[in-house]
Amino acid sequence: MSVLFALSSASFAEIIVNPSTGGGSAALNWSSDQASQLLNDDGELEPSPQGSTSISTSVRSSATPTSSINTSISSTPKVVIRDTGGYGSQPSVNARAALVMDAQTGEVLYSKNTNTAFPIASLTKLMTAVVTSDARLDMSEEITLQQIDFAGAGGKNSSSTLRAGDTMNRAEVLLFALMKSENPAAAALARTYPGGRSAFVAAMNAKARQLGMTSTHYVESTGLDPHNVASARDLGILASAASQYGLIRQFSTTPTYDFNLGYRVLKSNNTNALVRNGGWNINLSKTGYINEAGRCVVMHTTVNSRPAVVVLLGASSSQARTNDATNLLTWLSQQPKRL
């Protein structure tokens, strides 16, 4: 069962951020209870006692030894997709593949090439976030970016405002990966996973199998490699599963964030214009682009009190992707809540 919570940008602002004392980054700060709630539950964050936001960031309890960190694949409930042929009078879309799915029932409301696997670019980072969250790692642990994190994948490199030597906690690395789609951040999450990159990629593919994502295959954590492939159907399943992680909902829909690295501040914006503009009730978002994939997006949204997943793969431009998404959301808003 997928329970959707509409999280505004203000709700995220309520739990962040006090600059860390003694230099370094502006750390994301929660109590261990809050962090566990974000990782495991469907609920929104409750304010901390006395309204404080400058508190401990450890996801593990102090009684949990580091050696017992859980890196197993959690048993996220599977989503059963029911293709009923969609509704009549459907809009056309520019993208190569598209899906609109009722997130509670799994009913397919709109379908275009939904079972064909395509390169998915940075939509990969949604699974990167799920695997990171499943591992229950210490979100306050400092991670220093290394040159190898900038090496790219699939013969590709990407521009980045980050630099080798930048240090921040794991929560901020994850926020960089989800909100700003920074490839070095996603690479660092895999590198610092117990067992390293190979174990991380194995966990990504194991999670896909556990969720029933039958057309999906991952070879690395960023999405730069076009051999990371999935169908729109599979990405609908992933979006529904990822929406059950409060941490991923919050981080992927943060419109803007200023990363204070101590010696410079990186003012960053969400890669999804619909999240930045705030006109729709978007609970989860991830965009992607490489040449082979075109412009892609996956969103978990609530329209007329109806939770829904929207997936677009292979749009010809960022504007075409935004137009497709807007058209599908507008069309969905005009449909009855249930047939």
What descriptive keywords fit this protein?
339 residues; alpha+beta; Beta-lactamase; six-stranded mixed β-sheet; two-stranded antiparallel ribbon; 12 strands; disordered N terminus
Q: Might you state the CATH topology name?
A: Beta-lactamase
Helix/strand/pairing class, anyone?
A: alpha+beta
Spatially, the strands of the biggest sheet line up as: 1-3-2-12-11-10
* SS strand fraction: 15-25%
**CATH class call:** Alpha Beta
Itemize the secondary structure elements and their pairings.
Layout: H1 9-13, H2 32-40, E1 82-83, E2 97-102, E3 107-112, E4 118-119, H3 124-134, E5 142-144, E6 167-169, H4 170-179, H5 183-191, H6 196-211, E7 229-230, H7 232-242, H8 246-252, E8 256-260, E9 265-269, H9 273-277, E10 282-290, E11 294-303, E12 306-315, H10 318-333
Parallel strand pairs: 1-3
Antiparallel strand pairs: 2-3, 2-12, 4-7, 5-6, 8-9, 10-11, 11-12
Helix pairs in contact: 2-8, 3-6, 4-5
Fold and architecture overview:
By secondary structure, the protein is an alpha+beta fold. It has one domain: DD-peptidase/beta-lactamase superfamily (Beta-lactamase), CATH 3.40.710.10. About 30% of the residues lie in helices and about 20% in strands. Strand 2 and strand 3 form a beta hairpin. The relative contact order is 0.19.
Summary, kept brief:
With 339 residues, this protein is α+β, with helices and mostly antiparallel strands. It contains 10 helices and 12 strands. β11 (294-303) and β12 form a beta hairpin.
